[in-house]
Design brief:
Layout (H helix, E strand, L loop, with lengths): L1 H36 L7 H20 L4 H4 L3 E4 L2 E4 L3 H10 L2 H18 L1 H46 L2
Antiparallel strand pairs: 1-2
């Protein structure tokens, strides 16, 4: 397997370079079109916070959630709670992009920033929905962590109580 990946490395690197080129090309095109129209992209603290939350949530959605499995299926395989790229060359390079929440999140964030430049009003609506979903995901994780801690504390207290009443 490792030898196959070594043979595949030049093709995967070419895929990575192509993806970087597409990303930077879009960045240059959107930036240039905004400059010609005389509009300046201004991001306030609220925009940056929503961008961060929306990027976090959308990156995890694409990389891990089962609802996005049909999008990942051609290039990645869901195995239990993990998602792993499959194939070789271009297929594997795209699988690595779509199975990494940080990687795909960068593309999502780029699209959202481009959206703020091209169509700010609908993009802010998307930011609000996905950003609020990101907040909800953090709250859900905190609730689960707190609940688990509380249950462990109760179980430990019951063990201590049972040990002391049994003496």
């Amino acid at each position: 397997m490792a030898q196959n990946q070594d043979q595949d490395l030049p093709q995967r690197r070419a895929t990575y370079l192509s993806l970087i080129g597409v990303f930077m090309g879009l960045f240059a095109a959107i930036s240039a079109s905004g400059g010609r129209k005389g509009t300046k992209l201004e991001l306030g603290a609220q925009d940056l916070a929503l961008l961060g939350l929306a990027t976090y949530r959308a990156g995890r959605l694409v990389a891990y959630d089962r609802v996005m499995e049909p999008i990942r299926a051609p290039v990645a395989e869901t195995k239990g709670d993990s998602v792993e790229p499959k194939g070789s060359g271009i297929q594997r390079g795209l699988g690595e992009l779509l199975s990494c929440p940080t990687c795909v999140g960068t593309w999502i964030c780029g699209g959202l920033v481009y959206g703020l430049q091209i169509a700010p009003r609908p993009t802010r609506a998307v930011l609000a929905v996905v950003g609020a979903s990101g907040i909800a995901e953090f709250l859900d994780a905190a609730t689960e962590a707190f609940h688990g801690t509380t249950e462990r504390s109760r179980a430990e207290a019951q063990q201590i109580e049972g040990a002391s009443s049994g003496s």
